[in-house]
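User: quick one, sequence for these tokens?
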């Protein structure tokens, strides 16, 4: 089939399924991943058609392609791991600005998932050590693959970030960064269709969405070096509560920063012992 004919057909199918807003972009990404050149082989046509059919059912495009870009780096993704999102690049931007020019820093990435934050920071900063902490073995499979894919020197530690023993065994860090589960009970009941395919344990943060912030701030602040930084991604409308929590636990210079959509997306604070 001629490429343009198949392209237009796929766009139409996505539009009919209610995914019209980004239909042309999504089909372009599929074509870039599957087929080069003007003509489509029968095998490529079938592969493209299969992907678009699943996408019309609401299955995440990132899972269908098996890889997604984050901050200019490739990350393998699939069922069992949270999909890297552009919103999360805000937390990387913030860390890079705060640690620009600093040498031999230690970074700990909690709730690491695919490793998109920890691996990117290890690649972009002058890190002496970068540790990615993850509880899910399924997510850790992607984390290991992404460390190799990106030539990263990040380490993996398996465990629950709320476990006191795990905290005690970790090194002191210049930066502790985390994109924790932060959706509320109400949020979970109203998830977009495609988000329901992502692991609930990477999304749900308790009734008010703040369970992980409370645990991490309280337990992990002692693992920061003097003057170290704790940096969180937050959900929409959570900035006041997370900032208040960090101030209550002794953090100074607590700041909130917006993403490209003008939404408050991350909170940072400095801890002085």
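Assistant:
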């Amino acid at each position: 089939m001629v490429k343009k004919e198949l392209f237009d057909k796929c766009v139409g199918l996505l539009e009919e399924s209610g995914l019209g807003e980004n239909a042309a972009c999504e089909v372009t990404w599929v074509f870039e991943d599957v087929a080069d050149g003007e003509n489509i082989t029968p095998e490529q046509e079938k592969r493209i058609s299969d992907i678009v059919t699943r996408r019309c059912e609401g299955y995440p495009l990132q899972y269908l392609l098996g890889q997604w870009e984050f901050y200019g780096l490739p990350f393998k993704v699939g069922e069992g791991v949270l999909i890297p999102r552009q919103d999360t690049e805000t937390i990387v931007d913030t860390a890079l600005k705060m640690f620009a020019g600093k040498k031999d820093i230690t970074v700990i990435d909690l709730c690491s998932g695919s490793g998109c934050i920890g691996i990117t920071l290890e690649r972009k900063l002058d890190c002496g050590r970068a540790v990615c902490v993850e509880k899910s073995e399924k997510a850790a499979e992607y984390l290991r693959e992404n460390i190799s894919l990106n030539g990263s020197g990040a380490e993996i530690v398996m465990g629950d970030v709320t476990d006191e023993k795990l905290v005690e065994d970790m090194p002191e860090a210049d930066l502790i960064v985390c994109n924790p589960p932060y959706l509320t009970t109400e949020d979970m009941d109203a998830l977009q269709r495609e988000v329901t395919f992502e692991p609930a344990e990477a999304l749900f943060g308790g009734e008010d969405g703040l369970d992980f912030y409370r645990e991490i701030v309280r337990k992990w602040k002692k693992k920061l070096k003097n003057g170290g930084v704790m940096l969180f991604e937050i959900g929409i409308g959570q900035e006041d509560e997370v900032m208040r929590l960090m101030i209550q636990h002794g953090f100074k210079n607590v700041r909130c920063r917006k993403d490209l959509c003008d939404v408050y997306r991350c909170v940072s604070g400095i801890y002085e012992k």
